[in-house]
C-alpha cells in the first residue's frame, strides 16, 4: 500500500506529465496539419509548467517541474530557429508571428519565408478585363493603361507586400483548418498558397510511419507468405485512407 506522501508525489508527477501526453497526441494527428503546431506547443509548455507550480504538493514534484522546464528550454525552444518549422508556423493563419516566443526568431522565419517566395515560381493569374471609358469607342484615358503596362515590376517587392498583408491580418480562430483557409484564399495569395502545399504537408512526428510499419507486420504473417508487394501496398493504402469514407 502507498502512504500519503507517495500518493501526493504520484499525483504531482501525473499532473506534470499530463500536459506532455496532451502535447504528444496534439502533434501526432494523421488527419490534420501538424508541422505548424510544433512551435506553439513547445512554447506553450513552458508557461504551463510555471503556472502548475502552485498546484504541486511535494518538494520532489517541484524539482521535477524545474527539470522539465530546463528540458523544454534546451530541447524544444530550438524549433523556433529551424527553417521548416518557422516557415510552417508563419503560413498557419492561426499562429503567424504571434506563436513565437522570440521576436528575433519570428523575424528570421519571416525572412526565410520571403526568400522561399522569391525562389519559387510565381503563379500568373489571368488578368481581369479592363473596361474602356470613352466616347464612340475611343478611350480618353488610354495613356494611363499604357503607362501601367510599361511600369517596372519588382517580383520580390510584390511578394513581400503580399506577405506583409497576410501577416498583418487578424489571426484565424484556433478551430479553423489551415488547409480550408488557403483553399478559400488561394486567389488572394497565389504564391503563398503554393509554398503552403510544400510545407504544411510535412508530418510533425514519425508516429504515422511507425504505425504503417506495424500494420504491415500484422498483415504479413506465416499464413500469407505468398502475398505480393503490390497487394500489400494496396491493403495498406486502403487501411490508411479508410477515414475518408467516414
UniProtKB/TrEMBL annotation:
Any one GO MF annotation of this record: protein dimerization activity
Domain HAT C-terminal dimerisation: 163-241
Keyword entries, A-Z: Ligase, Metal-binding, Nucleus, Zinc, Zinc-finger
Species name: Drosophila suzukii
Protein name per the record: E3 SUMO-protein ligase ZBED1
Gene Ontology CC terms, in alphabetical order: nucleus
Predominant location category: nucleus
Lineage: Eukaryota, Metazoa, Ecdysozoa, Arthropoda, Hexapoda
Top-level taxon of origin: Eukaryota
Cited Pfam families: Dimer_Tnp_hAT
Metal-binding keyword on record: yes
Subcellular location: Nucleus
Keyword set includes Zinc: yes
Amino acid at each position: 500500500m502507498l502512504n500519503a506522501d507517495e500518493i501526493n508525489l504520484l499525483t504531482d508527477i501525473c499532473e506534470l506529465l499530463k500536459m506532455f501526453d496532451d502535447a504528444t497526441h496534439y502533434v501526432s494527428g494523421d488527419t490534420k496539419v501538424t508541422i505548424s503546431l510544433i512551435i506553439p506547443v513547445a512554447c506553450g509548455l513552458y508557461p504551463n509548467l510555471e503556472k502548475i507550480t502552485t498546484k504541486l504538493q511535494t518538494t520532489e514534484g517541484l524539482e521535477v517541474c524545474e527539470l522539465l522546464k530546463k528540458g523544454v528550454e534546451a530541447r524544444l525552444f530550438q524549433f523556433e530557429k529551424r527553417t521548416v518549422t518557422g516557415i510552417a508556423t508563419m503560413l498557419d493563419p492561426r499562429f503567424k508571428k504571434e506563436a513565437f516566443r522570440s521576436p528575433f526568431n519570428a523575424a528570421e522565419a519571416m525572412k526565410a519565408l520571403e526568400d522561399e517566395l522569391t525562389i519559387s515560381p510565381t503563379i500568373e493569374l489571368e488578368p481581369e478585363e479592363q473596361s474602356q471609358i470613352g466616347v464612340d469607342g475611343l478611350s480618353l484615358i488610354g495613356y494611363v493603361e499604357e503607362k501601367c503596362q510599361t511600369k517596372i515590376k519588382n517580383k520580390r517587392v510584390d511578394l513581400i507586400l503580399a506577405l506583409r498583408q497576410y501577416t498583418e491580418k487578424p489571426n484565424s480562430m484556433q478551430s479553423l483548418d489551415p488547409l480550408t483557409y488557403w483553399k478559400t484564399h488561394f486567389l488572394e495569395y497565389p504564391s503563398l498558397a503554393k509554398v503552403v502545399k510544400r510545407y504544411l504537408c510535412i508530418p510533425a512526428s514519425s508516429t504515422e510511419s511507425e504505425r504503417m510499419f506495424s500494420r504491415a507486420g500484422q498483415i504479413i504473417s506465416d499464413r500469407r507468405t505468398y502475398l505480393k508487394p503490390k497487394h500489400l501496398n494496396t491493403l495498406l493504402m486502403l487501411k490508411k485512407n479508410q477515414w475518408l469514407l467516414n
